[in-house]
Design brief:
- By secondary structure, the protein is α/β, with parallel strands linked by helices.
- It has one domain: P-loop containing nucleotide triphosphate hydrolases (Rossmann fold, 3-Layer(aba) Sandwich).
- Helix content is 44%, strand content 20%.
- The chain contains seven helices and nine strands; from the N terminus they run βαβββαββαβαβααβα.
- The strands form two sheets. The chain has a five-stranded parallel sheet with strand order 2-7-1-8-9, sandwiched between helices. A four-stranded mixed sheet has the order 4-3-6-5.
- Strand 5 and strand 6 form a beta hairpin.
- Helix 1 packs across helix 7 and helix 5 packs antiparallel against helix 6.
- The chain is globular, with a radius of gyration of 16 Å.
- The two termini are 15 Å apart.
């Protein structure tokens, strides 16, 4: 049987730069597979269905829950998010490495289901920087930014559950450090 792939779980508060770091690492490591989550929230900016997320209705999401098709799911910021168990299991079984961008609640469930996963928590350099990033992003109302900042405190308290914590104050350095983590896991695994 072929060698099983590795699962990489990436988390961090909204505005920490996870999406930017992940996009950069996927461009560098073209053999890494990105697990696209499904969500009931509407697309932001230029987000595309099937690229950034699978944007589905609440009813369709609930059908996936009932059918046992999700490795994890949670309500975050008033919307449902979930990860396909079928995609992860089949991709790993084919020896391909999978990267997930997931909130801390979903990650807790995945740590149980996939204990061999390598987990990375990405943080901003400080709370003021996080607020600046969320505000500059321009995709959320001031009330939503306030909610995200409050949620960020609780998320940051979970960072110690992860194998690695990367402070994202320099994008190139953060991407380089994440690439080294992936390379180490693949070499040792």
């Amino acid at each position: 049987m072929d060698k099983k792939g590795h699962l990489f779980i990436i988390s961090g508060p909204s505005g920490a730069g996870k999406s930017t770091v992940i996009q950069a690492i996927l461009e560098k490591k073209r053999d890494l597979r990105y697990s696209i989550s499904c969500t009931t929230r509407p697309p932001r900016g230029n987000e595309q269905d099937g690229v950034d997320y699978y944007f589905i209705t609440k009813a369709a999401f609930e059908k996936k829950i009932d059918a046992g098709q999700l490795a994890e799911w949670a309500e975050v910021h008033g919307h449902l998010y979930g990860t396909s168990a079928t995609y992860i299991d089949e991709t790993l079984a084919h020896g391909q490495d999978v990267l997930l961008d997931i909130d801390v609640e979903g990650a807790k469930k995945l740590f149980v289901k996939y204990p061999e996963a390598v987990s990375v928590f990405i943080t901003p350099s400080n709370a003021r920087e996080l607020e600046n990033r969320l505000t500059k992003r321009g995709t959320d109302s001031p009330k939503a930014v306030e909610r995200r900042l409050k949620n960020a405190e609780a998320e940051m308290a979970q960072a110690s559950r992860y194998d690695y914590i990367l402070e994202n104050d320099d994008l190139a350095e953060t991407v380089s450090r994440l690439e080294a983590i992936i390379r180490k896991a693949c070499f040792n695994g």
